[in-house]
């Protein structure tokens, strides 16, 4: 299980803290305490408690050991620099008539340039991390089709 903090995962100290929490939960499960009660006692979500319980049932405490730091990133630093350069060139330079970037368009750009798949929501998180969120003229959730429809209404 990964916990995002926008920087690519938890610190080593926070991972250790979460692991200790999972081990406390395992001890409670072994004592036949229901996951919902474990959640209340440990101050975690019921969802986490039930996920941990399922892992514990299948593999005991060992199944709750921290998996280590996640990569948290799909693009390298060099690719991120190239992406920012492409964004600065503008959407028109990449084939979109109205010249506006949307998260869907940036996802297409990333897929074409780097062969990496991002959802529009994932692109929004990435762009926010890079400081690009406020640089978009249109709401980031708007699709290229909606953009075309809106433009047609304005001129029609």
Automatic annotation (TrEMBL):
Pfam families: HTH_29 (PF13551), HTH_33 (PF13592). It comes from the Bacteria. Residues 98-133 form the Winged helix-turn helix domain. SUPFAM superfamilies: Homeodomain-like (SSF46689). Signal peptide: none annotated. InterPro entries: Homeodomain-like_sf (IPR009057), Winged_HTH_dom (IPR025959). This is Winged helix-turn helix domain-containing protein. It comes from Streptosporangium oxazolinicum.
